Amino acid sequence: MPAPAPGSVVSPVVVPASEWHERAAAHAARADTLTATWRAARDRGAKHAIEDFLFTYYPTRVGTLRRWHPGPGVVLAGAPERASWRWYRTVATPDGGTGAALDVAAFLAERGDTVRYVRALVDATAARPGTFGCFGLHEWAMVYRDAAAGRDHRHPLPLRLGDAGTDAVVEGHTIGCSHFDAYRFFTPEARDANRLRPTRERQPAMEQPGCLHANMDLYKWALKLGPAVPGDLLLDAFELAREIRWTDMAASPYDVSSYGVEALAIETPEGKAEYVRRQRDYAARSNDLRHRLVAVCDALTGDRPAEG
């Protein structure tokens, strides 16, 4: 039997208004919980050295996180307001009423290349073995010899070991960063210390599930797929990225004790062991998200409903 054409309708699931309203409200409440720390700092007019990354490096808007989508192949009964949302359309329901659903054909017309790129990248990453020996040295390489060069650090936080101590940690380790978007922030003095040479072009061939930043980036890929990503998957990706970000900064050269965070001292054997333990946990959890993102992409191109 031939596969359905992309954008065709195959047995859509109709969700009653009372049910999807409840799911949308629960989604918004969960988003509010996940963003509470950052919003509190923002409302005080304060910077948050740990969580700002999730709202500046990634194009995060609280309103976007709060907005629930069911994903492709799902019709929301009695949702006239959604028909005006981007990439939604009005459809008839079996009971003679109307509902709103993702317009898969329109979405693919605009975002088809993105769908194919994300699928290929996350699928290849999930199939690749994780590497668990980098110890978060990318953050250290981003401040290496800043003081000697007269540069300010990337974050307005003191260095836990001071300038000389931080430089000594970098010089005493072999750096093996596979993530281009981390590597591009290395100081000029640190770039040659990386035994790998990641590039944007080689990203699909180098991403691996042991990389904290590759795992945080799953949230970015979920954002790029917009309303095609079911709400639970979007918030699961954001929640994992947020948790990883706190580990990333705990293992960094910065003193984050002012945020109530105990340092993950990767310059010690105990710290290295704990870092690897967390890496392995994040790798397993991120690969689950990768498989779910692949399912969304396949639901779009083959119009098979993705679980929400």
Which residues form runs of ≥5 with pLDDT under 50? Answer: 1-9
Main sheet makeup: 4 strands, mixed
Oligomer: single chain
CA radius of gyration is 22 Å
Number of strands: 4
Please report the number of helical segments: 14
Q: What does this protein look like?
A:
- With 308 residues, this protein is mostly helical.
- It has 14 helices and four strands.
- The protein has a four-stranded mixed beta sheet with strand order 1-2-4-3.
- Strand 3 and strand 4 form a beta hairpin.
Ordered list of secondary-structure elements with their pairings:
Blueprint: E1 13-15, H1 17-34, H2 36-43, H3 53-56, H4 62-66, E2 74-77, E3 88-92, E4 98-102, H5 104-127, H6 137-141, H7 146-149, H8 162-171, H9 180-183, H10 188-191, H11 203-206, H12 212-224, H13 231-250, H14 269-302
Parallel strand pairs: 1-2
Antiparallel strand pairs: 2-4, 3-4
Helix pairs in contact: 1-13, 5-14, 12-13, 12-14, 13-14
Compact summary:
It is built from 14 helices and 4 strands. It has helices spanning 17-34, 36-43, 53-56, 62-66, 104-127, 137-141, 146-149, 162-171, 180-183, 188-191, 203-206, 212-224, 231-250, 269-302, and strands at 13-15, 74-77, 88-92, 98-102.
Task: Describe this protein with a few key phrases.
single chain, 308 residues, mainly alpha, four-stranded mixed β-sheet, 14 helices, disordered N terminus
